[in-house]
Amino acid sequence: MLTGQVRLIEPAAFTKVSALGVEEQRVNAIIDITSPPEKWLALGDGFKVDVRVLVQVVENAVMTPVSALFPVGARSGLFVLDNGHARLREIEVAARNGALAWVKTGLAKDTQVIVYPDTKLKDGDRVKTR
Fold first, then answer.
1. Are residues 18 and 67 in the same domain?
2. Hey, CA dihedral for 106, 112, 114, 115, is it positive or negative?
3. Domain with 49 in it
């Protein structure tokens, strides 16, 4: 694994059609490799790279799967597991990606949440874990 720093992200995206025929929006970025040269000198021209860009780092952030979230008015809600019962919690989401949400307020660390809750589930309903 190599480390690097983003120098430039082009301001306009372009459409690329994948081998499966799916249209994808892409944007070019220039990344300067910051790893020691002995780790990357063997690289040649035209290599494909998969990049993970950290846009924000928060120590000890409370995270939950986005599949547990649903709208509750202007906020987000989720169900937590409490002694075999579902308990509705309104939370404040600070940021999210396709898989995880950073919960700013309303959820303690290591609390079990119910993912993909049934639309009929209500606060206080008895639930079984699987």
1. no
2. positive
3. 1-53
Residue with tokens 């120098």: 7
- The string of pLDDT tens digits covering residues 76-102 is 999 999 999 999 999 999 999 889 999
Residues 68 and 116 in one domain: yes
Question: What distance in Å separates the CA atoms of residue 33 and residue 39, rounded to the nearest whole number?
Answer: 10
Q: What is the pTM of this model?
A: 0.65
- 105: CB partners within 8 A, 6+ apart: 91, 92
Both tokens assigned to 3: 């480390």
* 78/63 same-domain check: yes
If you search the block for the tokens 């579902």, which residue do you land on?
A: 86
Please give the distance of CA 19 from its chain centroid, rounded to a whole number.
25
